[in-house]
Design a protein that fits this description.
single chain, alpha/beta, TIM Barrel, Spore Coat Polysaccharide Biosynthesis Protein SpsA, Chain A, 3 domains, 8-stranded mixed sheet, 23 helices, 32% helix, elongated
Length: 698
Amino acid sequence: MKTKILATYLPQFHRIEENSKWWGAGFTEWTNVSRARPLFPGHYQPHIPADLGFYDLSTLGPLREQAELARDYGIDGFNFYFYWFSGKRILEKPLESFLESDIAIEFSLCWANENWTRKWDGGNKEILLEQGYEKGFEEGLFADLLPYLRDSRYVRIDGKPILSIYKVQELPNPIESLQRLRMLAAEQGLGGLHIIAVETFGLQTPEDVGADAMMEFPPSGTPPEARLPAPEGSPPDFTGQFWDYSTLVRHAAEKKDKEFIYYRGVMPSWDNSPRVGSAANVFLNSSPELFRLWLEFSLSWSSAKAANRAQPLVFVNAWNEWAEGAHLEPDLRNGRHWLEAVRQAKQTILTPVEEIRKRIAKSTDALGYNYMGEELVAIKDRSLLGLLQSLSKEVNFNNLKHVIRLWGEDKTGRKLLTSLRSALNGVVRVRYRAWKPRGYLRESNVLESNWQSNVLITCHIYHEGYTQRLATLTQAYSDQMQFLVTTSKADIKRDLDALGLVNLRVILTMNRGRNFGPLLVDAASEMKKFKYVVHLHSKKSTHSSLAFSQAWTDALWSPLAENPKILERFVSLFELEPDLAIGYPLITNLIHPRHFGWAGNYDQARSWHKENDIEMPNDPIPFPAGGMFFMRTSDFQVILEHGWSFEDFPPESGELDGTTQHLIERLLGTLPISLGRRHAVYIAEKDRFTDDVSYVLG
């Protein structure tokens, strides 16, 4: 029997009188989302919507787009929150518009029967809108539910409409109230109701409250062992809690089977700091890969348990809980990766539950992830986590995982590792991605004597500390090699000019569009004069720790500029293989393969390809992540001749994705593919090149 996936849907993305009164004029959920700020270095906040933007649910258009997107990726329906307070409806407009529409997606309702409070916790303090249960409330509630329950799109179990209730145990007499609702439904010819109690606040079985089933609702039920110490740099007044997502997934997979009807629930991530700030519950180490595995387990478990009973369901928390960090909708950092995880899980041929349990156990052995979600470290003994976390502070890095990732590259880290080696006894290990190319490119050392005159090295320097690095590079080649440097800082230009290098030209320009603005505005005309261009820049990832940022920079700069004879090898390879268009280092040991996609740049990319009459490749896509590369200029004329201006690049606001520069970075990888050309990927650990770009598949 096919398992349906229902995603919880929050309708609070439009203005209502009550919210304007309580929180300020014009308040919607986007107000909390957009004003969120990181709690510690590398904390991913704010979450900024990508494909659907900051939509307004007072009109039907966004809901129609949401339904289409959900269906495309395997979501069968929305489980809308239904707000009813003693006869008063609130946030009802999106639901009413949906009911009157022809939007083709299934749906159900969840009665969110908790107080609205100033602390967003449903408690009994600072109540804004109280949930009361006067005698006979069931008739009023059912009358408002009835138009939805009759709708042909409404989800049914054994012919009965389903109704989930968030805090059913808070009803004065839940067993009597639920039976009364069933009778009212039967009187209307609906055959009754299939009532689902949400597993919250200690509820043990549906029988305790007279419900027909129970719904798992993470993060409710997270085990105590999932608690994590606060990351370095967290606010001193932080009163919330940090949790490990991977432990929650493992706990969910290892639950004992229930003797009642139990609907599994999953969540992509969770972080309610946009709502409550320093009192937040923040889950670390979530990733689309682990979410997909959790969902795959839930689908297989549900299908197996439902063989001889009601339609199996799996609930996702949530479709659009943006202020709680739980959303499948695309954002600028992850793009559609959460949705893609749903599609992959649903398309997977059902695997035995025990096999998936083993895969989850193996995956969740790893507690070490960098801030971009890549698994780097496996810790077999979880009791050592606190010890290692405290030790990380001694080497002055922001995050334990970076210490372990980098301790082989840092002098202090090597010393620490040596002293711990016998005590750890293999408990900690660095985990690199085990990707092997299908083959390597052959190389030739045959070069024209004046090959250097065919190469221009461009470099944009904004951050300090690169003057000497660039000087070393210029001195490594003869005066035939030309260097074009852009910078927005007069002191950097002065220091470079003082080197007195005849082959170095420095342009004082704007720092807009990061490295790509100066490259395409100031250097494009010069680039077209050369057969090959190398592009470098003073990369610094301000959203990551300094250690990780430096590791990323080194992983790009060193292979392209500081590896002995590397430029000669690039040129000879491209001369030998005329259909090679771009070359760059492989860095999947730092950047997860799932980041090789259009992400928040999809719409802009679609417009660009249509404008230039070029077929747009589908995800995943290979590109020089980090923006440093070796290129054959003739293959990029459509970009170089575009006539860029700085107005094409938005002012820098620390964006992680979705800007013109992020689009260009991806076009450098996809344009050659669209033109039938190839990439040359340099694998530093093998000191060899490959044209195999299958690493983007993960």
